[in-house]
Amino acid sequence: MLHVLRSPDGSSAAVNGAARARGPLARELAAVLGDHPAILEDIWALVLDFHGTLAHTTASHEQALRDALHAHGAGLDHGWYLRHAGLSIRDLLTRLPGARHLPHDEIIEHSRARLLATIGCITPVSSVVALLRAARRAGLPCAIASGASRLLVQPGLEALGLTSEFAVVVAGEDVPHGKPAPDLYIEAARRLDAPPGRCLAVDDAFDGVTAARAAGMHVLTLAGGHLAPAGEGA
């Protein structure tokens, strides 16, 4: 069966999905994905979360928020943060017990300033970068779908040297609702001109996996730094 893969500039190229699945580049993708190559069937595009997925940033984001909260006499429980790490910082503050009446804008500015000051030190998640590189060699367009601000995502991509790998970057300010709503992933698919059902998403957080699944995408998550299918309890 012949599929049409459209690039972000509106051009199209006829792609034989079956031949692509059997080709050497697809085998490289299958090698990255381990024992679940069936997920490659008819995948047209790759959509990645950024923080915690493409880059090791969870610990630095947690500490930046903790420091910003501490300045206002508030704390941050480690377990609570990990359970909600997929949310944007504004949504985190909305849900954080005891933070309703704190100056959210001031806390966000404080946290963001700390993160930007150290953004050159972030490191990539090797398994996700391997998947990204393989996808690009296979000719698949790639996108970022991050609930964070573009002010953090774009410099982060530059720090990793990966800006040129992505045809599309969707950030928190680009959609009405952040994760776990599907808006970010749906918008990334729209900009790639790929049906969500033909996209492979990777997200490390529960809310991100929920968002990608609600968008109708195939979903992988991270387990111990390795890619794994996102089960119902992921």
What are the main properties of this structure?
234 residues, alpha/beta, Rossmann fold, DNA polymerase, domain 1, six-stranded mixed β-sheet, 10 helices, 15% strand, globular
Overview of the molecule:
The protein is of the alpha/beta class and 234 residues long. It has two domains: 2-55 and 125-229, Rossmann fold; 58-121, DNA polymerase, domain 1 (Orthogonal Bundle), CATH 1.10.150. The protein has ten helices and eight strands. It has helices at residues 17-22, 24-33, 58-70, 78-84, 89-95, 104-117, 126-137, 150-160, 183-192, 206-214, and strands spanning 2-6, 12-16, 45-48, 142-145, 168-170, 199-202, 218-223, 226-229. It has a six-stranded mixed beta sheet with strand order 5-4-3-6-7-8, sandwiched between helices. α2 packs antiparallel against α7 and α3 crosses α6. The longest helix has 14 residues, at 104-117. The protein is globular and about 55 Å long. The two termini are 33 Å apart. Mean pLDDT is 84; it is low at 1-22.
